[in-house]
Each structure stands twice: as C-alpha cells, then as structure tokens.
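Per reviewer request, we include the raw input and output of the structure prediction for the construct analysed in the revised manuscript.
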Amino acid sequence: MDLYILDPDINLQGVIDGYSSLRWRRRFFEPGEVELHCKASPENLTLLRPENIIHRLDRKEAAIIEGVSVEGEEITATGRMGSSMLDRRVITPTINFSGTAEAAMRKIVTENRPPSNLALGSAAGLAPTATFQATGKNVLTTCTALARSAPLGFRCRLDVPGKRWVFEVYDGTDRSVTQHDRPYVLFSDEFRNIVNPKYEINTTGAANYAYVAGQDSGENRVIVTVDQTGGAPLLELWVDARDLQQAEGQSLDDYKAQLTQRGVEKLAETARVENFSADAVDTANFAYLTDWELGDIVSFEKWGIRLDQRITEVEEVDEGGVMTITPVCGNPLPEALDLGSDT
C-alpha cells in the first residue's frame, strides 16, 4: 500500500511504498490514531516530520504526524486523524446555542478561528438536538461530548485537489439483526467471520439518572433531572452545573434546556462500559467498507451473548502485507469527557 506524504499546505512531498507495520485506528466520536514503522532512511526521515500528513487513497481520513522517533534502523511516526486540529482551539467568546447537534458542531468549528484550509462540508440534516452554553472550552473536547450525547460521528476529510480539509458530521446505518429495512450484518461463529473475540462489561461508576444543579442556592437553586433509566435499576448522578448561568434575556425554559444538555453529556460519560471486539474475517458475506462501516450498528454474537450496537472503532493493522481488521462494538472508552468549568 502506498502512503502519500503531504506538507501542511497539502502539497505532495513524496510516497512511502515500503514499511514494516502500519496501524490505522479509526474512531467515530473523536480523532483516530496512526502508527507507522519503516526504515530510517534519509528519504523517510525527510518525509516523516511533525505536521506533515499521511494520506491513503482508500480512506476518507488522513493523519497529521505529531511524533517521530528513531531507534536503530527504524523510524516510528505517530499522529492523529485530521479532526485532531480542533484540539488547537478554544471557544471564545461565549456560545449560547439551541438547535441540532450537527449545527452546533459546525458553528463551533467555524466561529473559533479555524485554520485557513479547513472548510465545512455539506450539512447532512441530522436530527439530534443540543442546547448548551460554552466559554473557554476546547473545541475538540466539546465536539466529542456533543457527538457522544447525540450520538453522531465527525471527521475532517482530506480534499487533496482542493488543498483543504472538510469538516463533516455523519451518522452510521442500522444493520443489526433486529431491523428489517436492509440486509443485516452479524459477526458470529456461525458465519465464521470473527477470531479472537473479546467481550467486556463494567458498571463501575455507571449512572442513568442525573440531577443537574445550576445557578442560585438552597431552595432557589435551579435543578433539572435527566432520566435515561428505561426501566433499568436507578443509578443516580449529581451534576454541579453552577458554571452555567442564565444569560440576560434568556428564558427559564431555555436555561433549563442547557442544564438538561449538560446532564445528557455527563450521563454519556458515565454510561456502563459494554463492548464486543474481534478480528473480523473479511468474507464475501460481510465485507468491510462494502457491507459495514465505522459508525454502523451491527450485531456480534458469541458465548450466548448478542450485542446490537454501534461500531465505534475500527483498527486496521498491516504487518508484512497481512491486514487485520478489528471492529469494536459498543462503548469501550471509559475515560471522562468533561467539558470542565468556564474559564
């Protein structure tokens, strides 16, 4: 596989056509990661510099190199996908927003000093909504929190002919066995399309009902509740949202909607960890990128357990010309996505 190396202005610098290992990790809710191992030749050392871009013709994402190390005869380059550039901006001045989560992310990206070569793609018209207030928060962290609470994916797609990055919000397709509108996708022993399966569930710190406390104190404190129990046992969470203050001229209902959005985001952070991962065998029945993609909802079945959930990660590893595809279905990432307090 050829890897095209471009400079930050998206000008081709050269091609790497030989490497020992390439790890290409795609993520739905946040930037994916890349790790490349190749010969420490003068040509490769010149190409693999921080801020240069690793581009594959067969993927929408491209990676920005962030780290380079050389040991012996091998060079290792690491980085994140293009949407990591949002990590370099903070929200200022204050944004007060009520509308769709897609429109919110597009507004955040365009109104906070985006790079000159970052443009908005066409709006997809996705329905999930969000109401929030933000100041001084990291743009990437905010987009990730909005994406998780929606849930929606986002990416910065590389447009080489246009010499630009294109920000897009997108959704996957339900291909689980429970729907009947399209052919399903099932990873199971029956279809002989998975190896090395791994199932994990962890309810430590999980919550499904939030009390979100806003401005004032005592009996005057504005408190809203967010109920995501869905018939499950009650797991309560207290969210101190005093940093959200009712703006001048803002209605109480709109302010409460902002508090509700904060509660939705916090519950997304504390959702129970449940995921099913396996190395997928790329069969004619369910071929990667043809029958299923990152963000799609599919079914995994093993040990009498079936999980019908979204593919939140796909890790592609190419070692010696042998490609391994590992989809991760569910909620595998327990780390907090706290937007923090306004600064």
